[in-house]
Amino acid sequence: MSDFNTIYDSHLALKDKKISATELCNEYLKVAKENPNNTFITLTEDYALNKAQEIDKSGIKNHLDGIPFSLKDLFITKNIRTTAGSKMLYNYIPPYEGTTSSNLQNAGAVLVGKVGCDEFGMGSSNENTPFGPVNLPLNKDYLPGGSSGASAVSVLEKSSLFSIGTDTGGSVRLPANFCGLFGYKPTYGRVSRYGQIAYASSLDQASPFARTPLDIAIIMDAMTKNDEKDSTQAPIGAMSSTSKILNNKDKSLSLVIGIDRSMIENCREDVRENLNQSIKELEKNGVKFKDITLPHLKYSVAVYYVIATSEASSNLARFDGVHFGFSSTEGHDLENSYALSRSLGFHEEVKRRVLLGTFCLSSGYSDEYYSHACKVRRLIYDDFQKAFNECDYVYSPVCATTSFKKDELMTPLQMYMNDLYTIPVNLAGLPSMALPYGSSSLNSLPTGFQLIGNSFKDEELILDSHKIFEVLK
Ligand code: GLN
C-alpha cells in the first residue's frame, strides 16, 4: 500500500507521476473487494477502473482527479444500485444522477462503491439495516457509530480516501468521532440535497469524512457549486477553502471560543479528561475560552425527535410498493398491499419513527407537538446567536462516551441520547467540524470535540480547523 493517506498527498503523488490513477484505484479496490468490515453494499469496480484509466490519459488537473471515494448508499447514482440501507429499496437502480455524486465525479473523483448505513439514515450505530453491522476496524468488537458508520470505516480501512455521509442529527460527526477522523457538517443550505434520499428535509446535509481539514476543504469546494435543482441550497457559489488554506500565512489562533462547561462535566471520565486537555492545549496556543450558557439545548433531543420523525413520516410515505419500493404480492386489496409492503419493507426503527411522526402531525396533536417543537427549535437557534455575539465558535463534545460494543444492548431512548451534543447544530442549521483529539484511557478508542460556527461561516471554520489541527497534531 502506498503511504499517501490524504487526498492532498495522493494528489501530489499523482501529479508527480509517483503513482498512476489506475494503480491508486487498484490499491483501494483491493481492500474494498476484501470488504473486511462489511463496509460495502455495492462495489463499482469496472466503473472505477474505467474512470481511473480515463484520468491517466487526460492528466491530473484538479485536486480530486483520480482520488478514490465512497458514497453512503443514500445518494442517488445513475444506473448504480441505491438501497438507502433498506430492504425497501433492495433492487432500486436510479435512472438519474444526484448532485453530490455528479459534483464529485465531475471534479475527477473515482467512485469505488456504495457503503452501508442505518436504514434511511435512522440510527447511531449502523446496526438498523438488513445488510448487517459494520466493524470498527480499530477493535472489531466495537461499532463505528452511525448512521454513516460505513462511510467512516471506508476511510479508516483505506478502501476510500474520503467518503460522503449525511448528517441529519449527527450521523457524520458521531462516526468521525468514534473512528478518529474529521467529519464536517456544512451550514444548512450550503450543499445541494438533490438526489439525496430524504430523511428529514429541514435537517439533512451531505457531509464529508476525511483525514485532515485540508482534505475536507478540497471536498467542500467541489460540493458547493450552485444547483438550480435544489431550492433549499443558497445560491452563493462554490467555496474556495483549499486555496485559502494553501495560501494562508497567518498561523496564529487569536480566536474566542465559547464554552458551556456543564456539557463537559456530563461526559464520561475518560472523554472529559481529553476534552479538558484539548482546551488547555488550545489556550497555550492563543485561544481564549469564554463561558457561555445555551439554556435551551437541554430540549434538543425531544425537539429533534418530534421534528425529524414528522418530516420522515411525510418523506417516507412514497414507499408503498406502488410508487416506490418493495412490493408485497400477498395483499388482497390496495390498502392491504400498502400495509404489507410497508410493514415487511421497513426495519423496526423506521416503523417506530413513522408511527411517532404520524402521531405528532395528526390533527388535534400537531399544535401540541410539531408546532411547539418548531418554536423551541427557534429558541435553540437564538441561544447560539446570542453566543456568537461574544465568540467566534462554540466548543462542544461530540459524544459523552467513546464508541460502544456490538452487544451493548440499548433501548431506543438510550441510543437517541448519543446524539445529545450533535443534534442542536442541525436544529440551528449551523456548520460544525468534528475534530479527533486523543484516545481514551479506558479503552484506547478515539476521542475528540466539535467546533460549531455561525451560519455560512464554513470557509472560516475549515481554515481555523486546519490551524488547530496543525498545533494539536
Ligand atoms: N442518530 C440520529 C437519528 O437517528 C441522527 C441520524 C442522522 O444524522 N442521519 O436520527
Notes on the structure:
With 473 residues, the protein is α/β, with parallel strands linked by helices. It has a domain at 7-247: Amidase signature (AS) domain (Amidase signature (AS) enzymes). 40% of the residues lie in helices and 12% in strands. The protein contains 17 helices and eleven strands. It has helices at residues 7-15, 21-34, 45-58, 99-106, 149-156, 173-179, 213-223, 241-247, 261-265, 269-284, 300-315, 334-345, 348-361, 367-388, 412-416, 423-428, 458-472; strands at residues 40-43, 68-72, 110-115, 162-167, 182-185, 205-210, 256-259, 288-291, 393-397, 432-439, 446-452. It has an eleven-stranded mixed β-sheet, sandwiched between helices. Helix 7 (213-223) packs antiparallel against helix 17 (458-472) and helix 11 (300-315) crosses helix 13. The longest helix has 22 residues, at 367-388. It is globular and about 70 Å long. The mean pLDDT is 97.
Task: Name its key features.
single chain, 473 residues, Amidase signature (AS) enzymes, eleven-stranded mixed sheet, binds glutamine
Shape: globular
Bound molecules: glutamine
What value does the Rg take, in angstroms? Answer: 21 Å
Question: Which residues sit in consecutive blocks of at least 5 with pLDDT less than 50?
Answer: none
CATH topology of the domain at 7-247: Amidase signature (AS) enzymes
Which percent range describes the beta-strand content? 5-15%
Q: Name the CATH architecture of the domain at 7-247.
A: Alpha-Beta Complex
CATH class division of the domain at 7-247? Alpha Beta
Strand order of the largest sheet: 1-3-2-4-6-5-10-11-9-7-8
Considering DSSP H and I runs of 4 or more, what fraction of the residues is helical? 25-40%
Biggest sheet layout: 11 strands, mixed
Mean pLDDT: 97
User: What's the total helix number?
Assistant: 17
The succession of helices and strands, N to C, reads HHEHEHEHEHEEHHEHHEHHHHEHHEEH
